[in-house]
């Protein structure tokens, strides 16, 4: 890595935009202004194979600092992933096998470098140091902290007060993450606000071991497409980096209007002044939020695909969602497949939920029932008429009909 480091002209772009808290901001700012390359640590546990836009908030900050000449050090938590960080969870997590961790890591790294520059990133695997740990090393590490300190962590405290189990391995997780900072001599560690306890343990352990304590750089939690909870694959409110363009664009268009500003701030380079103008226009009702949302969806889809793909995704959205026309390319399913489970059942009693599963539009009968109960399923007939499917009563499907689920899932019935 080059020793040439640029001092940012606008510090607030680094320290305020897309940032929740820095401990300590004054020290971090002073470090930036010295013009010395900083060792920027971000760790990830490959407990899942996918990255979503919630992760991108922090990755963009790494890229900004990387472009100024600072060194990104990515820690692959191939040991801690087998334990699982309990942050925000109310139960002990299932441990993964090392093979599962390695498979997830390969997928994660591919997506990580869609944002961060691969050539300017140092990748380190925890197994390089933890693989040689002995019981004596573990005892020495654990002796530096008390159970009382760890019970001040919110998720541990809640579970302890409710007499819920806390595995000893979970207590080891923050210590292992902290030791990573010691090994690589981290200057700054990055994480979400739910990682504050772990980052502070690393800062404290470095001080105990004679190092300069790292600064803790925390990004805000990105709210998911439901507009309520943190973006999460398990909650189904996420936008993955490897989504097809139409899916990515469509999910972003489903955002509640109140999230438009934060998504622009956290996930794009649109100037603050322009974002302020958008916010004012929406609050004063002098502009349609739909236009700003289209701009957002197009920008993000372009970032992870290209402008042609984003153009096509926008055209698809306008055709299928706004004008409610059918898309040009609809998957087909044979009528015989749909009626196979119903050969002995009168049409008036056929289960809509089972039909959705047979058509590949629902992963289970339970999901099919949920979609039908939400009024999300309709049949578009060749003459243009539409029939919304209800829980009560049967369903009759004929060749030429199109089954539509929500805004983006279709299948055409063929003979």
Keywords:
single chain, about 425 residues, alpha/beta, Rossmann fold, Tyrosyl-Transfer RNA Synthetase, Structural Genomics Hypothetical 15.5 Kd Protein In mrcA-pckA Intergenic Region, Chain A, six-stranded mixed beta sheet, five-stranded mixed beta sheet, 19 helices, 11 strands, about 45% helix, about 10% strand, globular
Please, could you describe this protein's structure?
The structure is a single chain. With 415 residues, this protein is α/β, with parallel strands linked by helices. The chain folds into 3 domains: 11-219, Rossmann fold; 245-322, Tyrosyl-Transfer RNA Synthetase; 332-414, Structural Genomics Hypothetical 15.5 Kd Protein In mrcA-pckA Intergenic Region, Chain A, CATH 3.10.290. It is built from 19 helices and 11 strands. The chain has helices at residues 11-15, 25-34, 53-67, 80-83, 98-112, 127-130, 135-142, 147-150, 154-161, 168-184, 196-208, 245-253, 260-267, 272-283, 289-304, 307-322, 335-339, 352-358, 365-373, and strands at residues 21-23, 39-44, 71-76, 121-125, 188-192, 215-219, 332-334, 377-380, 386-388, 402-405, 409-414. The strands form 2 sheets. Strands 1-6-5-2-3-4 form a 6-stranded mixed β-sheet, sandwiched between helices. The longest helix is centred in the middle third of the chain and has 17 residues, at 168-184. Residues 88-92 and 344-349 have low confidence and may be disordered.
